Amino acid sequence: MPADVDELRESVAEAARKLGRRGLVLGTAGNVSARVGDVVAVTATGLVLADATIEDVTLVGMDGVVSAGAHEPTSELGLHLGIYEASDARAVVHTHSSAAVALSLVTDELPPVHYAQLALGGTVPVVPFAPFGTGELARSVVAAIASKSAVIMAHHGSVASGHDLASALSNTELLEWLCGIYLSAASVARPRALTDAQLAATLDEVVRRAYGTAASVRRD
Fold this sequence. Notes:
The chain has 6 helices and 9 strands, in the order αββββαβαββαββαα. The protein is α+β, with helices and mostly antiparallel strands. It has a single domain, classed as Class II aldolase/adducin N-terminal domain (L-fuculose-1-phosphate Aldolase), CATH 3.40.225.10. A 9-stranded mixed sheet has the order 4-3-2-1-5-9-8-7-6, with helices on both faces. The two termini are 26 Å apart.
């Protein structure tokens, strides 16, 4: 994570543009932030993410007070700050991606349908609907993501966190892919989920291949 605040702001703007290029956001439907120490760089409200520039990224403290930037931060600022306050995450990505929204309309959770889902913490919960930008929504997301790297918001979208912007973006893409897999399978029959034993065996294999060091599960 860049230490210089201008680099931090530019990295958030670049992440926002990537979301647009990869079709994970439509217009202004999403927001991105990254944290270094007690400084959070977050995209502005009403921003078309695909067109984000450094001027569209605001700096705020963990108390929510703006310290730099010409624009008001996203209405979901409380959600971002809540995740940072409650975890060691250093980046948060929120999108209204289509597969995540669609899945939120038909189920209360995304069960583990692929071993790669271990990277998100296994089963991904769908938190109940609450209006955007509200404390109710922020509290629900913060509570649900406590032991996860992603959650789905009913009738709304997804939130993914990570130790940096690259990992938060990767988790966002992974979640959208998994939601698409679930929906494709559900159009034929009830999807089969991996069992706890199967997930545990996969984790054992990850650890064995990493010779006891931490490793992330990939879609190989």
